[in-house]
Amino acid sequence: MQGAVENLLERCGYIQLLDGSVVLLDDGAKALILSTLRDMSAGALRCLGFAYKEDLAEFATYDGEEHAAHKYLLDPSYYSSIESNMIFCGFVGLRVRTCTSWNLF
Q1: DSSP codes joined into one string, 39-72
Q2: Exposure winner among 13, 70, 90, 105, fewest CB in 10 A?
Q3: Which domain holds residue 71?
Q4: In angstroms, rounded to a whole number, what is the distance separating the alpha carbons of residues 13 and 18?
Q5: How many domains does the chain contain in total?
Q6: Among the ranges given (6-20, 60-74, 88-102), the one the predictor scored with the smallest mean pLDDT
Q7: Across residues 47-70, what is the average pLDDT?
Q8: Which CATH number fits the domain that encloses residue 38?
Q9: Neighbouring-strand partners of residue 88
Q10: Which percentage of the chain shows pLDDT scores above 90?
Q11: Non-local CB neighbours of 3 within 8 Å, separated by 6+ positions
Q12: What is the pTM of this model?
């Protein structure tokens, strides 16, 4: 999953470390991430966070609209249960550039 870092952190209970191990996401780690996010945002970077979920439950065998769990994707009341207890794996800062036909050459 990708999205605003602050929103993803609210949905994550764990964080993946550089060595690939997964540990609980505590308040100290969240504060450090948010501090880094503020610094990057102050530098005019658009930040995008990434998270994933290992326990896919009924979605583990999902293969399209005919799957029994597809109905959960169509009902917004299920989103919070689907997008919870995820593993935060990082974020990037992107510099946005405007490209018009005037500056292509």
Answers
A1: HHHHTT-EEEEEEE-S--GGGTT--STTSTTHHH
A2: 105
A3: 2-103
A4: 17
A5: 1
A6: 88-102
A7: 88
A8: 3.40.1110.10
A9: 15, 51
A10: 53
A11: 48, 49
A12: 0.76
